[in-house]
Design brief:
Length: 167
């Protein structure tokens, strides 16, 4: 197994929540972490455990009102990092795997799993991509309400991790 380090500027996270007025979208880069993996031909075999993190203050929609409320709900001063710890990897079929572990958000850690696509890119980096819908209430957060503006509790989160061989 070789160690691969996430490239923060190429590792991205998107999140979308529905509201009574319009979708709320968050898009950012800056994910960090290291992954153990083995490349055989064009296939990638991941090995657990590994940890992925992002600074919670990077999660912004571009709308100052929404961003202020998001940072308040996430309580970023008290809980500055969103952390995913992968404790198990189940190969599914070539290029696909199920990652099992815990997601820590707002100081609450919950067991979860996600199916991901895994591949080797032309430049020799590894790409892991997947999405998962989470319920913010499972992490101790109440969906925001502003007068007639109400946010639904389900948030679709998608991540694209790009990692290069550590030197």
């Amino acid at each position: 197994m070789a160690r691969y380090r996430l490239i923060p500027e190429r590792s991205e996270l998107w999140a979308e929540a529905r509201s009574s007025l319009h979708p709320i979208r968050v898009e950012t880069s800056g994910l960090t972490g290291e992954i153990d993996a083995e490349i055989e031909g064009d296939q990638v075999r991941l090995s657990a455990p590994f940890r992925i993190e992002i600074d919670a203050q990077r999660l912004k929609s571009g709308n100052r009102l929404v961003d202020g409320e998001l940072q308040r709900r996430l309580d970023t001063r008290k809980f500055p990092r969103v952390v995913g710890i992968v404790s198990g990897v189940d190969p599914l079929q070539p290029g696909r795997a199920r990652l099992r572990g815990d997601l820590s958000l707002h100081g609450v850690s919950k067991s979860t799993h996600v199916e991901v696509a895994v591949r080797v890119l032309e430049d020799g980096t590894i790409e892991i991509e997947g999405d998962k819908t989470i319920d913010m209430r499972d992490h101790g957060m109440t969906p925001p309400k502003f007068l007639m503006f109400k946010v639904q509790p389900d948030v679709k989160v998608r991540a694209r991790l790009v990692a290069e061989k550590a030197t």
